[in-house]
Each structure stands twice: as structure tokens, then as C-alpha cells.
Specification:
175 residues, mainly alpha, 2 strands
Length: 175
Amino acid sequence: MNNPFASLGVDYEEDTSTNNLDRKLKKLKRKQLKNPTEERAAKIKELDLIINPPKYNKKDKEKDKSDDDILEEAYKKNNSYWKKQERLKKYFEQMEKQEKEERDAARKKAKEDKINNKKIRIGQNIKDTMVIPCDIIQFISIPPKKDVYRKLVLKYHPDKGGDEEYFKIINNHMN
């Protein structure tokens, strides 16, 4: 029996009948076993690499490097980012320092104000000078209110350990 397709100019070395690469590879390997050639061996290697690519693992490559090398490489790769982070860190440290100084100055000033404003001197001579607390001065500066009066009377009553002069001032303003 003659092959009816023998008259067609078909290259039996290259399999064009299918796009299935696994099938092509198996067929080439069978042919290679029967009739080995270097071209076919190269083609088998090429197809084998296409079908089963070598697995590249970053961890394998990084195992050769030390931790310091990896960090140095990452630093070089993202140098602008790290410089920006350093600048931001310095900026925030400077701002914290400045805020702390401002808070300390405000506390110191408040402490001084508290000491200075607690009592006000009335009189021209040192002998005539009388020191009056701020809460009594505020009470005197507004129209008399019973609730404020009661608090001050309890605070400055001589029987409760208060000053008699302050008590007289509070009573005179209320009456």
C-alpha cells in the first residue's frame, strides 16, 4: 500500500499537526530514541524549557547574601525615600524640642503669674500695705452675689482659720 499523502511535501521532522506542546515533546523524544540527532536534542531542550521553566526562587539568590548586603541594596534602591524619612525624623525631633521648651516656658510663666497675682498690695507705705487675695478682689469688683459670698465667708471666717481683715472686707461689701 502506498501512502496517499506521500506526494505532499510534508516535513516529517517538524510536527505542525498540533499546538499541544506536551504532545510535541513526547513525539520528539520518541523519535530521538529511534534516530538520535543533535538538532532534535536541541529542539527537545527548547521545548522542555518552555513547558517546564526552571523555578527561580528569590530566596535561593538571597541566601548567598548577608543581611547587611540585603539592607544596603534596599537602602541604595530607595535612597530618596530613606533620606526623606531622616529629614522628617529630624524635623519632628526639632518640633518636639521646641514644643517642650514652649511648654516649660509657659509653665514657668504661669507659676510666676500665680505667685504674683495671688495677692495684690493696697497702700502706699510699707507699714500701710495690705495684701488682698484675688478672689476677694473679684468679689468686690462685681455686684454682690450670695453664693460667692457664702464661699468666701466659709473660706475666710476667723473661726475656720481665716483672716479677720479679709472677713470684714467681704461683709462690708455684702452689706
